[in-house]
TrEMBL record:
<keyword id="KW-0378">Hydrolase</keyword>
<protein>
    <submittedName>
        <fullName>Hydrolase</fullName>
    </submittedName>
</protein>
<dbReference type="InterPro" id="IPR003010">
    <property type="entry name" value="C-N_Hydrolase"/>
</dbReference>
<feature type="domain" description="CN hydrolase">
    <location>
        <begin position="3"/>
        <end position="244"/>
    </location>
</feature>
<dbReference type="GO" id="GO:0016787">
    <property type="term" value="F:hydrolase activity"/>
</dbReference>
<dbReference type="InterPro" id="IPR036526">
    <property type="entry name" value="C-N_Hydrolase_sf"/>
</dbReference>
<dbReference type="Pfam" id="PF00795">
    <property type="entry name" value="CN_hydrolase"/>
</dbReference>
<comment type="similarity">
    <text>Belongs to the carbon-nitrogen hydrolase superfamily. NIT1/NIT2 family.</text>
</comment>
Amino acid sequence: MKLTFSLAQIDIAFGQPAKNFAKIEQFVKQAADQEADMVVFPEMWNTGYDLIRLNDIADPNGDQTKHVLAALARKYNIMIHGGSVSTKRDGKFYNSTYIFDQEGHQIADYDKVHLFGLMAEDEYLAAGDHKDRFEIKGIAATSVICYDIRFPEWLRTQSLTDSRIIFVPAEWPTPRLEQWRKLLAARAIENQSFVIGVNRVGSDPDNRFGGSSVVYDPLGKEVLRLNDREQLATITIETGQTDKVRGSMPVFADRRPDLYE
Ligand SMILES: NC(=O)CCC(=O)C(=O)O
């Protein structure tokens, strides 16, 4: 099955949700014009890492995000991977993903499981407690968030479903971009999956973000890499490639979970 994805590598206005919400429609429209099945956004695009002000700016229950993304999905007849946004639930803050089909139905949600101390997430955010699985035209996929990719056991857990594509929205700072690409390539190879990583560009008071959004195929070959400018890029993948790779080297069947505890 051929699937077409648009990677929306955007800049994010620090602590200004209204500005960020106003920006995303043009990228959804552009992706729809390019006949993408799904458009994918980066991490925490509603507020950036303005964590001190989360009580004022995080999205209560993700309601605004869900409302806006559902409406855009319906308007442009396109699936939307909502990257992630800061949300507020039951007095706690989360880094949350919402995913919508082209009719505007929410098909998945996820809260970042591994909180990144170097960007103070552990001080301000609560960690997620579940994995996700959703389908794109019948093809199973999973999604994690940024720092989660440093935990191969977590992505493996997700990939032990029938997943063939792993999505990774991110705000990954420029000095570690080489690690970003190497980690994503490794996750693609070991899970014999496509990996689609969408990073932001621009800067906030603490970090610069150099884009380098990427797509790896199930052999870990880089099939798309963006530069450090705001842009939307579209790529078509052949998901059957995962079956060929898994058939030629049965890594999943050769696992020894009896020894892994
Ligand atoms: N936003 C993040 O989770 C950043 C993760 C990161 O930069 C890393 O090196 O890991």
